[in-house]
Amino acid sequence: MIIYRIVAAGIGLVALSAPLYAQLAEPAPLVAEQPALTVLNQLGAAPNDAARLILFDRALALLPQPTPLRGHVLCGRAAVLGQLHREDEARLGFDQCRQLLPDEPNVLLPIAFDESHRQRPVEAAQLIIRAAKLKASALDQIDADSMATVLRQLAYAGKGDLADTMIDALVGAGYPRDNPGVFSHYTQTAILYRLRTGDAATAMQLLPSVLSPHAGVAMLVDRRYAPIWPAIGEWAGNDLSVQRGALLAAARATFETSETPETRLAYAQALVDTGHRGEAITLIEQWLQTDAANTDMWVRSMAVLKQGRWLAEEGDRAEGIRRMRAAVDAPAQPESGIENIVPNLVMQLLLAQDFGGAIAMLDRHPPSADTLESPVAAGYFVALRACALQGLGKHEQAAAQLARLRSVYPTAKTAGDYAVACVAPIDEQAARWIATVRDPDTRNDALVALETARYRAKQALPALTLTEQMLRRIESRTDVRRSFTEFGRPLPDSYAPALDDFNVRPAATPRGPSPTPVA
């Protein structure tokens, strides 16, 4: 899960000079607007946001008519208010701006993410779709984590169809340009979206845009892609090695071109996905040791949690836990994103069988409504507590947490998987997976997860998640295998190494099973 990131989706007008404002306004600024442009020309020299706000107010006073230039100034002022954390005033300003510039995507996007922050993902998605169709490049200002927040909110709300429509629009706009792994995942979804509408021709046209081997695996096992399996097989080659090389090359090129924290993380993830986990850990560690890593604490926290998880996958769970714990225990800073580290840290504590430590961490860092991307996301913390209690032998209390999860957070599907894996009897675990694979919104992930669990068990690799441990327990059941055959097919052996990110060496001995389910 990812806790909500407050997006400053400003439209880039804050530091523009008067000539640039003149270029933005259509038609060209009027002679009567020249005094306002003179004021706006001082924005570049303003020392801070408070000073910029004063200049915008002065310019607005000189622009009484509802012209396009006034609309741009209203937007610039709203962006500054957002930077000053005056969100309600900022939203009012963007709404006023939208009245004058109704088809400006750089106005629609800040409103969209304000809608997301107010827990209205349907409205947010509709605005994002419209903005993507109006001007694809406008999306470049939005980081991939923030866009993913809207998609998860739609999933919590049971709006999977709208999420697919939004993803198809994002792919049509080429978003995100700076993260080929995420773009590949979106394109895989867009291919299925077009297959469902009977448009196999355009679905196949998207295949060359998929660079991720993971996306290839997902398409090769899911029967919904069967109409174009021959094309997918030709695209994938014998072993997905072309995609493996292409993803790494694209991510590296993007990182070397920009070297932003976000592209560094995307490159590190591409390294992991292509069998270079150790290099990814080093890449992140080198960055964390620099002063630049302290300029965006949100990205720093995301880097720490990823590094911690990758260390665990490399067999050094203790070091991963140590690093995540150090970040959580550091002096609190606003919008630092440590809320994202906490559930990931608790998960690793559970896998290390430190159930008391998991409870202590959950008690110290309860979820906050101010940072949760959706109220439903609190279900993750309920599920983790259920697992910790089960591990401590407190089954009745664990079962009570599972019951609470089902009644209060029924759409927290992944959280439900965790709790069922820890607390429920085996029959219920199997029923849970069967229900998941029958649900079109979760089918693909369920198929890939079962194939991954089978492969890793065959290779004597440790289970990396609570869900994987559950899948190993149920994969040989007749009802599970029947459902898998109905909706999927086994991944051909030549592609199987992709299920373990092409890490063919044996992994370290597991540090301990998940809490034992009741019989």
UniProtKB/TrEMBL annotation:
Residues 493-519 are annotated as: Disordered. Gene3D superfamilies: Tetratricopeptide repeat domain (1.25.40.10). This is Tetratricopeptide repeat protein.
